[in-house]
Amino acid sequence: MLIKIPGVGDCSESQVTPEKAYLGRRRVLQGMMASAACSVIPRLSWADAERYADVPAAAAPGWFADKLRHTRWQALPEDESLTPYRDATHYNNFYEFGPGKGDPARNAAGMVIEPWAVLVDGEVERPGKYSVEELFAPSQLEERIYRLRCVEAWSMVIPWLGFPLAELIRRLEPTSAAKYVRFETLARPEQMPGMRGDFSLIDWPYVEALRMDEAMHPLTLLAVGMYGRVLPNQNGAPLRLVVPWKYGFKSIKSIVRISFVREQPATTWQRMAPQEYGFYANVNPQVSHPRWSQARERRLPGSLFNPNIRETLLFNGYADQVSHLYAGMDLSRDY
Ligand SMILES: Nc1nc2c(c(=O)[nH]1)N[C@H]1C(S)=C(S)[C@@H](COP(=O)(O)O)O[C@H]1N2
Ligand SMILES: [Mo]
């Protein structure tokens, strides 16, 4: 398991590494190991100073830079290494910018992300149009290092920056009629070449959804950054979903609409190829996709000589935290 989220109350004062411990890199690591997942890093941005020193600087809106100073960074897991930033930002799926893995990095820079509004509607007490800044203002940013497992059988380990979707949902106050949360991606063909090409079979906009209890699960993240920086456009700027126990396609990018609904929504891949993609899309090595076995995965970056193959884990390794959500369900039928 990659991360067990501690409650804030689980971190005792002595586990909060003092600032002077961050001055030397070796001492940083020792400090992090000792405090495990409880490292609340004060003032000095360790991300900028050390861990992500080789990640290119990116222009960030003022509110983001502000939040970064109070971010709760996660200790690096001992049993996993982070996917290099270069791979995480140049091997992408974002069909709005084209079908190739390199298309999003090549084409997404043209997407205008400021200003950005998110429409909140449906069964909810506080509907409206919110800016990203408004959505994030009351919450602290947290780093979450998660495995990302694509249904195409490759995987990465990505350090996200965001906050639990549950926090936002509580603030928006869905009514008791809300059973699912539905998300929509921006659809702006003039800035998204993948929407214009012949290949574009998808019924835009890209839509994903979660059952309410999945959306409220503490692992479900609304991300605005990765690797200590704002999200690059190709990774779903300015805000995206991250659901680490599900196949990557559930983690919808560049969200412009969040709707609280009564019925299970039709989602993009499920609608296009219902025999291939289910609504739940929980990572499951036992349930094969018609074109891919899901038993194993290629951890990127690999090479011809070292393809870096590993066993896929049920719920992508997060079973101890999420399997209760599916108690009584037949995972081979409700996939
Ligand atoms: N709007 C939108 N969101 C999307 C996709 C997409 O094509 N469009 N692809 C999904 C798929 S299949 C995966 S594996 C992940 C990839 O996220 P990454 O490029 O940040 O690794 O994004 C998901 N979110
Ligand atoms: Mo994917």
UniProtKB/TrEMBL annotation:
Cofactor: Mo-molybdopterin
Keywords, comma-separated and alphabetical: Metal-binding, Molybdenum, Oxidoreductase, Signal
Gene field: msrP
Record's protein name: Protein-methionine-sulfoxide reductase catalytic subunit MsrP
Record field: catalytic activity: L-methionyl-[protein] + a quinone + H2O = L-methionyl-(R)-S-oxide-[protein] + a quinol; L-methionyl-[protein] + a quinone + H2O = L-methionyl-(S)-S-oxide-[protein] + a quinol
Positions with a binding annotation for Mo-molybdopterin: N92, Y95, E96, C150, T185, N235, R240, S251, I252, K253
PANTHER family, A to Z: PROTEIN-METHIONINE-SULFOXIDE REDUCTASE, PROTEIN-METHIONINE-SULFOXIDE REDUCTASE CATALYTIC SUBUNIT MSRP
Subunit structure and binding partners: Heterodimer of a catalytic subunit (MsrP) and a heme-binding subunit (MsrQ).
TM region positions: none
InterPro entries named in the record: MsrP (IPR022867), OxRdtase_Mopterin-bd_dom (IPR000572), OxRdtase_Mopterin-bd_sf (IPR036374)
EC number: 1.8.5.-
Family: Belongs to the MsrP family.
Organism this protein belongs to: Stutzerimonas nitrititolerans
Source organism, top-level taxon: Bacteria
Signal peptide boundaries: none
Function summary: Part of the MsrPQ system that repairs oxidized periplasmic proteins containing methionine sulfoxide residues (Met-O), using respiratory chain electrons. Thus protects these proteins from oxidative-stress damage caused by reactive species of oxygen and chlorine generated by the host defense mechanisms. MsrPQ is essential for the maintenance of envelope integrity under bleach stress, rescuing a wide series of structurally unrelated periplasmic proteins from methionine oxidation.
Domain Oxidoreductase molybdopterin-binding, residue spans: 114-269
Keyword Cytoplasm annotated: no
Details of cofactor binding: Binds 1 Mo-molybdopterin (Mo-MPT) cofactor per subunit.
